[in-house]
Design goal:
Structural class: alpha+beta
CATH superfamily: Gcn5-related N-acetyltransferase (GNAT)
Distance between the termini: 34 Å
Order of helices and strands: EHHEEEHEHEE
Helix content: 25-40%
Largest sheet: 7 strands, mixed
Number of strands: 7
Number of helices: 4
Amino acid sequence: METETIRDMRESDVPNIHRIEELCFAMPWSEKSILHDLKENVVARWLVLTDEAQPQTPVLAYASMWLVVDEGHICNVAVHPAFRGMGYGKRVMEALIARAREEGMRLMTLEVRRSNAIAQALYHSLGFTDVGYRKRYYEDNREDALIMFKDLV
């Protein structure tokens, strides 16, 4: 029986998303920033993946993007560390891609750490291609970001 749900983020999800941010990223978004993006940023779209079979972890994965003209710019994608390798990242990304298409976007872009081979493999499996680098993009360690692109038309 399928117990997973992918839905729009709710205000009540913010603390859980922030906890995953802290577990996954060297420079996590603050709860205030996530809440602002949800409530005030009209171009932001956040999706969460939940599983009623995992009530101790209300949000297992999430992804967000900003809609800019005809581009869905992916801001955040994360899976709770205890639930990695189960396909949740791929499922929430597929839902985000579908949402971008529904919203009339023609392409999607993202930046990913040059050293993050696991995320890059996921994005490649979803049809993203490498298009360039942003030198010293990440403030915490000055690592380069790989820029990836997906055509939606």
